[in-house]
# Entry
Amino acid sequence: MRDRKALLFTLVVAVAGVWALAQTAGWPIKAWLYPRVITIPLVALALVETALLLRGRESSESEPVPDIEMDTSVDPSVATRRTLGVITWIAGFFAAVLLVGFQIAVPGFVFAYLRGAGREGWVLSIALALVAVLAFHMLFVSLLHLPLPPGLLWRLLGR
# Structure
């Protein structure tokens, strides 16, 4: 029963990938490059998994199960605090992207994270924020020519 569900899932993934490839057929190269770079390996891996399942590989129940235990050496209150901290940083980054856009949010986030959570020095934090903005600009703006919309604050201010 489990193998049938896995087979159905991999077939659905493969069909969805082929459909996505068909949808990008008439697009210009700049538009279809990213979807195809992701979708072609996805379809290939789904088809390989489908072939392995159809070949009738032995059930994994006969294979030894790795011994995985929860790490109890960290106090639950510390783990909760750390988890909430990570969630807060991620939510803050999304909020910054929405409010001021990627080009300001990326270096701002790198700087804030290094100074706040990483407790790094000013020089390293500023240097790595500059590296982040240069790498981001070179990759997405100069190389890929992706339009990066301004944040909500810039739109409200009319920029």
In short: The chain has a mean pLDDT of 88.
